[in-house]
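Researcher: Hi, I'm a grad student and pretty new to this. My advisor asked me to get structures for two proteins we've been looking at. I'm not sure of the right format, so I'll just paste the first sequence and hope you can take it from there.
Model: That works fine. Here's the first sequence with its structure tokens right after it:
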Amino acid sequence: MFGFRIARVQARLSAQIAQLLRDHQRLSVMQWRVLFMLDALGKTTPAEIVRETGLDKGQLSRTIRDMTERGLLEAVPNTDDMRGQVIDFSERGRALFQKVRPLIYDRQDRLLSVMSEEERKTFIRVLDLLEDEMNRIDAEEN
């Protein structure tokens, strides 16, 4: 039953974020995730984003192409692996991220405001425990 609850919360959170992004900046959740990861990692490769997030490689590739065409990202050949590319914010993409980030963080803060500081720490600790165990199960099964 807890898997269903987690999936339901995740689906509702994604739907709310998607609506917020559409209403304010015509961004998809996937595009937001790319911008967020660029902010976290700096200039990086799509492969690194996939490793860090578990996003679908094909969907990420299409998203990066679309964002590059919209002028939100800059992509250059990866000198370490000429088959791939390195992506980074364009000036327009960085400005958009700076504009959208407060909207997303305000929503996150509102959701977390129903918990005490101790409950937040426990919540994060429980998520970490579940993710660690899922990683162990994956390693055993693969």
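Researcher: Oh nice, that was easy. Here's the second one.
Model: And its structure:
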Amino acid sequence: MSTQRSTQTITAVPALPAVHERYADVADRRLAVALSTEDAAEERGELDPLERTTCYTHRRWLHHCVSSPLHVIVVTGHRWCRRCECAVNVAIDQLTGDVTLTCPKCHGMPPGAANRQIVRCCRASLAAAHDSDHDAVRALRAVA
């Protein structure tokens, strides 16, 4: 019988950040963590609310709900064509990652920092959700 002790160290698996109770029922845990993390960063003044990749109101990835009328902000020009004075349509191709804003009247991409910001944030949202999808597929493969 050996009296030697094991010298192996056990490494802890990093825990996911806490999920706010508001998102406890969100099935996509990575989305729930992202929502909670962005909420906290916004409350601390570290994140501009218009730079989020998630949507506090709809509790979704931004690219899933950006076409909602609630995401039109006339004053700042978000999803707005100032030339035609109308809301802009959003098309998102989840396969290619393309995000396109088009004015229904002039059929152009309205200029301005606000609309470029929407494109940038939707692309970041797509990337974050895509990473989440890959994690789900890996988990399913591990079970199979």
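Researcher: Is there anything I should tell my advisor about the second?
Model: You could mention this: Strands lie at 54-55, 60-61, 80-81, 86-87, 89-93, 98-102.
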